[in-house]
Amino acid sequence: MNKHFLIIGLAIAFCLNLTAQTYKIDTSTITFENVNRPCLTVKYDASPKTVKKAWDDYFKKTYDVKVKGIGFLTNKEVITAIDMSLPAISEKRMNMYASVVDAPGDRSELSYFMSFGYDFFIGPENYATEFAAMKKILNDFSVEFLTDYYYSEASRMTSEIKKLEKDISQNNKSIKKNTKKARKESKEVASGLEAKNISMQMENDQNKRKIEELGKAIENIKIKQAGVTRN
Q1: Is CATH 3.30.530 what the domain over 21-146 is classified as, yes or no?
Q2: pLDDT tens sequence across 47-59
Q3: Predicted TM-score (pTM) of this structure
Q4: What is the 3-state secondary structure (H, E, C) of 58-123?
């Protein structure tokens, strides 16, 4: 009986792991202009520059808001949209800030904060409704960004696998051709062809390992795609 319960427990834990959330939005603070400001933070698998570019594209497309600090020859840690209108949060004019920095594990951390004017920063206590609206926007962005990002990564890896498989196939054809040719050539020539075959076989073995690693990475991406759910 205990064994059956253990198996069921492991199965449930496995299923929960498969559906675990890929991202998590936390309420936090960030030091900005030497003062702690309330913010929302979230970590992504993508690089800071990729996140900043996606943030700019999203606000431009969805809210017609131009974010400054990321673009050609520009890549600031804190990207901004100053004195802009965002009715999804408030009818008042606002400033929007996003700090995107490196995080452990080849990830990035985005800290999103906003203010009315110079020093009225939106937080869960003083502007609860507006802060909740900020979280909704961050959820909207996260779902769209991660859906596109993981699809792009999986597509890139699939293309890389196809290229590696093509290289293996071409090497196999060359190995077969060299083996056949070696039977008709002198010992010296045959030895040279055998050396080439060994080199190509080593390359094939290396490519097969890369394919296996990429296959595992794609499976991991599928798990993360399934976990892209709103907080």
Answers
A1: yes
A2: 999 999 999 999 9
A3: 0.85
A4: HHHHHHCCCCEEEECCEEEEEEEEEEEEECCCEEEEEEEEEEEEEECCCEEEEEEEEEECCCEECC
